[in-house]
Amino acid sequence: MTHELQTPVLSVRGLTTVFERHRERSVAVDDVSFDVPAGSSVGIIGESGCGKSTTVRSVLGLLDQNGRTVAGSARFQGTDLLKLRPRQYREIRGRRIGFVSQNPFGALNPVLRIEKQFHNVISAHRKTTKKASYERAVELLEAVGLSDPERVARGYAHQLSGGMAQRVVIAIALCLDPDLVVADEPTTALDATVQVQILDLLAKVVTGAGRSLLIVTHDLGVVAQYCASVVVMHHGRVVETGPVDRVLVTPDSPHAANLLAAVKSTALQVEGSALGGEGREPEGGGE
Ligand SMILES: Nc1ncnc2c1ncn2[C@@H]1O[C@H](COP(=O)(O)OP(=O)(O)OP(=O)(O)O)[C@@H](O)[C@H]1O
């Protein structure tokens, strides 16, 4: 499959974001451009502090008050997200773009039942009833591999393990059937074995279901296994983009080559695990 022939679901051009603190200004994201093709998965990779999270937070309108995007565009299905007012942003985020963050317990409200959190997200975007939201919650909690979805729906976040909580966050991100899911280091806070299950799940319910996935990671193994193409960042800039099976075999940039050299010792199996155009078809996973 040739990515260039597909219309991107997200097209970022010249994105430039600065942080200003105590009158000091630093450029965190500098002239960043990349595409997320429809139905495909793209990884953003680079060392800590290179601007990965700031890139996706800029695109999603989730910067804190110190951050400001000063140039560029982020066209999502034809709409430049960077030109939206906050209310219009909220319309698209949640409904057409799902977001999965690093820390599931930070994303879930500790004092609301899980079913109520589904209801709040769904009712913010469309007419629904508590019963319909509950049924949607149970359906999705089952789809993300939770074995007792009714009990989870009626419970609270503190009753969940980290992996279960991230499954709930993924289910909530999917509840309005978005076309794009953005995941920012979605497994950093989880145990190693649960990390694989969550990544397999994301690949299955996002790219496996025809949606697009943009995933931020510092782990080249994640890119090799779950992404079709990769954006390599260094000091706020994109230093290389391309299909995973090309970048991981013959990187053009010294930064991509360095990342590759660092994981060579872990016997990265590029062949057979790097995705083609559509993404790897993963196994489902229980907890
Ligand atoms: N809220 C903020 N206020 C000020 N500076 C920030 C803020 N968030 C990020 N930065 C700065 O922007 C730069 C990019 O940070 P960012 O978190 O995007 O990097 P990252 O590649 O996602 O790193 P990591 O992998 O460690 O999460 C860094 O220099 C960081 O210190």
TrEMBL record:
Q: Which SUPFAM superfamilies match?
A: P-loop containing nucleoside triphosphate hydrolases
Q: How does it sit in the membrane?
A: Peripheral membrane protein
Q: What is a GO molecular function of this protein?
A: ATP binding
Q: What is its main location?
A: membrane
Intracellular or extracellular location(s):
Cell membrane
Q: Which family does it belong to?
A: Belongs to the ABC transporter superfamily.
Q: What is this protein called?
A: ABC transporter ATP-binding protein
Q: Which organism is it from?
A: Phytohabitans kaempferiae
